[in-house]
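To whoever is on call:

I kicked off a structure prediction for a single chain this morning and the downstream step that reads the tokens threw a length-mismatch warning. I double-checked the sequence; it's 211 residues and nothing unusual in it as far as I can see. Pasting both halves so you can look.
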Amino acid sequence: MAMKLTSKKSYRVIEHLLKQPESSQLGLSNETGVALGHVNKIINYMHDLNMVSKKSRSYILTDPLRLLEKISFERPLKRLETTTFRLPTTSIVESEEILNNACNKNNVDYALTSFSGLRRYYEYHISYPSIHAYVSDPGIETKIEHGEGAIPVTLLKPDRPEILVNSLEIDGLRACDRIQIVVDLFSSGYGRDAAMKFLEVIQHGTEEHTS
């Protein structure tokens, strides 16, 4: 039977799986607060799709690529876009600062994601000249001066409250948590390699934010 891995409870399990690929179903249930029976259903479903291997009551996520492909199919980042516009700026740094100041001034919560968020944690060898940010109020666009600059700014509607709640402030800017950035990079369609590289870094516990 098909299961939606991006449903509220399932997604909590998926996030934990991506961070910690090996554990037990009981441990996963305790860590996420999702009932053990539902955790077992998710693990069994993923096992049927050859995403995890099972041994007694433990599991190992063996194919994160296939898992992210499934999430991307269910939840393409494009579907969450509310608007895209440009600022009268020439650099990503300046554009991010304008967005940050506008949101702070107007009491709008935001969190950078995709390559914008990745830059807060990890120095990837390819820079994508755009800004993606979840915002609590898409109307913030009307409070920001538009222009003909080189950097497009795309605002996203959070499909879960945890996206903004779990965001972190890094060097004065707010960014999504690490796994959300992995999911969004992969689901964007153009950040899959960056997503897999960053996920590997996260799982090995070696990431550090850039300054």
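Update from on-call: the warning came from a stale cache, not from the record. Cleared it. Sanity check on the structure: The two ends are 46 Å apart (CA to CA).
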